[in-house]
Amino acid sequence: MAKRFFTMIKELTQRPYRKRIRVVHKVPIDQEWDKPVSFARIKEELSKSSDIIFRDFILRGKEDIPCSLGMVDGLVDKDLLDAYILRVIMVEAVDDPVFQEMTLKNVNDRLLDLFTPANEVKKIGRLGEAIDGMLSGDAVLFIKESQEALVISARGWSDRGVGVPQNESSIRGPKEGFNETLRTNTSLLRRKIKHPSLRLLSMKIGDLSKTDVVIAYVETIANMDVVGEVLKRLSRIRTDAVISGDMLEELIEDHPYSPFPQISNTERPDIVTAELLEGRVAIMVDGTPSALIVPVTLPMFMQVNDDYYQRAMIVIIVRTIRYWGAFIALLAPSLYIAVTTFHQELLPTSMLLSLAASREAVPFSALGEALLMLLALEILQEGGLRLPKPIGQTIGIVGALIIGEAAVGAGLISPIMVIVIGFTAVSSYTIPYYDLAIAIRLIRLPLMVLAGTMGFFGLAIGLYLCIIHLLGLRSFGTPYLSPIAPLRIRAFLQDTFVRAPWWASRKIPDLVDVHDTKSGRKK
After folding, report:
1. Per-residue pLDDT tens over the stretch 451-484
2. First and final C-alpha spacing in the chain
């Protein structure tokens, strides 16, 4: 029997995964965007919006050349344009003999040489590139009679700045977090990984939103098959808009109907840096103050950033408490229901008499009590989450106390059930990742129903089905239960249920397949 069980685990963990991608495509791509630059066509397309500005002027060289500088008000730095672009064209370059020899044929090349010391400038020839440049915050200089234009980097919108992460606090770690500006987020990674092998690949997703997305990985460490799979899935997305990284997460995950999270989400640059150095890939979306991490495993969702800023012995104790909290949050109500309904012989006589006395006037079964209390708990949690923070905390604590006391006083709920559900709720807060906590909340309900109808036998069936489901999950080709199944001894001992001391962690944890590095780190 045991041999058959381990054979099944091996088959499930080695089963090839399906490469899934959802394609959503509503608005056709404008076919004219591949045509040469036409100022008249661009002005016709964009001038209907009040924030689009076209500043017309004439370059007086060997011949008069009509030009126009296009920009989006609020996205460009006007002081930069005035000081380094318009002033150079209209004032400083008037007496330049090279400037005076400018004609329509060589105007773009001359201007390109003229602007090179000032800022990033590139010459473009496609209509779509000009529109993308303007709508992305750059200034575009059009020569009205030319089929080329110059894109001048002059982005200057305001951002929130680098602040303290709101959802992932740290006691001893850094106090900086991502914000909504993509280039600020990539710069935070560059500050921590000062090596040329850090790759930041850019692409745009969304036919209407044209959202900038950056894929980050360390080339000498990451598995290039995983990198290629990430790029493939992202490039196959056809949708009108990508508003946030959470939307992107749903479009590229392997198993969309699984309650378990298959992509990690973090707003801390230090966590992203650590994952990149372990061979994973990060996906950052413009406008989203967090990054996605792939591939992931289930033990990753039980680890927090403070695990790597504390001493190893303390981390082992805290992680043990965390795993026990997850175990209680998942199984405590089901175990109570199964014992009180079918297996009273497991309880000592004194405890059994106490439970019977407390439940004597309760009109509901143990399963009905638990479902009623969990429903009230979920309503309180959801209501407190949507309210302002001070009021939400008050509703969650005071509301639970008042409702629980009133239900016990009215004889609807037994006192022991209030204790069990309250302990379950508190234990669920030990789960670091909110997505995993929601998954456990969802799975808890069917386990309670199975325990209430078939006792320990039904609970065992439910757990067996959960284990089979977890064994079949993949995250970009990586088994979800790695390094437990398949068993990887070094990773299991180094950073799973325990964390090895830093002096004993000279190699990358063997959680995902990685390349050997040239800097002394081994596979």
Report:
1. 999 999 999 999 999 999 999 899 888 899 988 8
2. 35
Question: What is the CB neighbour count within 10 angstroms for residue 135?
Answer: 14
DSSP of 436-501 = HHHHHHHHHHHHHHHHHHHHHHHHHHHHHHHHHHHHH-EETTEETTTTTTTT-HHHHHHHTSSB--
The three-state secondary structure class of 321 is: helix
In 219-349 the beta strands, taken as DSSP E runs, fall at: 264-266, 281-285, 291-294
In angstroms, the Cα distances linking 150 to 51, 127, 141, 275 are: 20, 12, 5, 39
- Please enumerate in sequence order all residues whose Cβ is within 8 A of that of 232, keeping only pairs 6 or more positions apart, or say none: 19
Buried b (16+ CB within 10 A) or exposed e, 174-191: bebbbbebbeebbebbee
What separation in angstroms does the CA of 266 have from each of 55, 165, 273, 316? 42, 9, 11, 23
CA 143 to chain CA centroid, Å, is 42
What's the number of CA atoms in the CB half-sphere (13 Å) around residue 485? Answer: 21
Q: Which residues, in sequence order, are bridge partners of residue 121? A: 152
How far CA 364 is from CA of 319, 339, 355, 360, in Å, comes to: 37, 16, 14, 10
Predicted local confidence at residue 464, as pLDDT: 93
Handedness of CA 252, 253, 257, 261 (dihedral sign): negative
In the prediction, which pLDDT does 457 show? 93
Instruction: Specify the long-range contacts of residues 197-200, CB closer than 8 Å, at least 24 apart.
Output: 197/221, 198/276
The set of residues, in sequence order, having a beta carbon less than 8 Å from that of 270 and lying 6+ positions away, is 173, 174, 192, 305
SS3 labels along 109-174? HHHHHHHCCCCCEEEECEHHHHHHHHHCCCEEEEECCCCCEEEECCECCCCCCCCCCCCCCCCCCC
What's CA 318's distance to the chain center, in Å?
25
CA angle 263, 268, 274 (to 5 degrees): 75
The residues pairing with 264 across neighbouring beta strands, listed in sequence order, are 293
Say whether pLDDT at 64 is over 90. no
Sheet holding 149-152, edge to edge: 52-60, 64-72, 139-143, 149-152, 121-124
Q: Taking 60 as the threshold, does the pLDDT of residue 28 lie above it?
A: no
Query: How much is the mean pLDDT over the chain?
Result: 80
Nearest to 140 by CA among 78, 70, 82: 70
Which tokens belong to 477?
A: 């080709």
Give the pLDDT confidence of 98-127 residue by residue, as tens digits.
666 666 777 777 777 666 554 578 888 888
Residue 207 makes CB contacts below 8 A (sequence gap 6+) with 25, 27, 28, 29, 238, 239, 240, 241
Within 10 angstroms of residue 494's Cβ, the number of other Cβ atoms is 21
Cα 276-482-229 angle, rounded to 5 deg: 50
Separation between Cα atoms, residue 165 and residue 171, nearest integer Å: 12
